[in-house]
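ok so for the tutorial part 2 we go from a plain amino acid sequence to predicted structure tokens. step 1 is just haveing the sequence, like this:
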Amino acid sequence: MSSMNVSLSTLILYVQDVKNLKEFYTENFGLQIIEEDLNWVLLNAGGVHLGLHTMGLEYRGKANAVQSYQNNAKMVFEIDVDIQIARNNLISKNIRMRDIKTFEDYDFWLCDGLDPEGNVFQLKSAKR
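step 2 — the prediction. this is what the tokens look like for a chain of 128 residues:
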């Protein structure tokens, strides 16, 4: 098999309420809508697109995911503002956020949060 060039172009989340999550990501992160219809929205998230797709009827209502950080994926948004200010702004909108953390010899501050359906996102801000 020959080698191929690969790049991640889109991450799709299957969600219960496309409209609610579209508003969450456009209002809180400034993501721009590329395309949308009743069951789908595609957002420009910089180097990758974020797709929100309505999950199948058989799965809707079964995932009360807002209770805990038990996802197996995390979206990381690199921001160009002070992470404490960004975190406080999200908390003021009743968005669940964890404490800010970093690691030894790591040039970034990190802070995890949850969107309205329990999908984990992380803010990543360069140390200044």
